[in-house]
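sorry for the late reply, my laptop died twice this morning and i had to redo everyting from scratch. anyway the thing you sent over, i finally got around to it. pasting the sequence first so we're on the same page, its 246 residues, then the predicted structure underneath. double check i copied it right bc i was rushing
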Amino acid sequence: MKRFEENRNFMKSGFMEDILSDQKKQLPQPPLQKPYDNDSEIIDLPEINREIISKKDIHNCIADRKSHREYTTEALTIDELSYLLWATQGVKEIRGDNYATVRPVASAGARHPFETYLAIQNVHGLKEGIYRYLSLEHKLLFLYEEKNIKDKITDGTLGQKFAGSAAVNFIWSCIPYRGEWRYDKRSHKVMLIDAGHVCHALYIACEVLGLGTCAIAAYDQNLMDKMIDVDGEDEFVIYMAPVSKI
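ok and here's the structure:
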């Protein structure tokens, strides 16, 4: 139908058109990771610990994967959080002269246009507040303390109370120019596909650890952008997922 035509065309390939991207113009590429102040509070994450894996059969992990909306009040461990961050956006290798990163998830052109923010309520050893994952260093950047995460996440997810009750909410932002630099106007479709790769990796990693999650695409854009302090244009929230014990 006519009212769907534009969005349906957006879902199609578009890669047959020859476009002079900023990469082809030899313009400098955006940084692989959003910069931060050197005097910021940085928290070391533990190395990946395979001993915390509770389900080692990959077939069962795939077969049992599902969304969970009922959580316990038990805290996550820092080892579990470290594993989830590595599984979704950890950097295994940097290629070229800071040209691209290799991660556990696929990304068109290895652009990885996302930053991972965390609204933490109940993780051992971490105060309640908003954090950002530094994927290149596998560390956390503390942004600010927040004692009202439950209500703000519930409001930000349009009344989804289970999200507000979670130990931690993964909040992925998109920095679109990372993809636009290479693929120009064709980049936006593949960046949305990439977001799906990241969230599915979280589902499988949660299944591996015996945790629960649920993808959230219904949220208040302005409230969630404000929560992680981004401008809503050059960086904005693209996807969310609460994680807790089940």
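The beta strands are 41-44, 93-95, 100-102, 114-120, 129-134, 139-145, 168-174, 211-213, 236-245.
thats about all i looked at so far, will dig more tmrw
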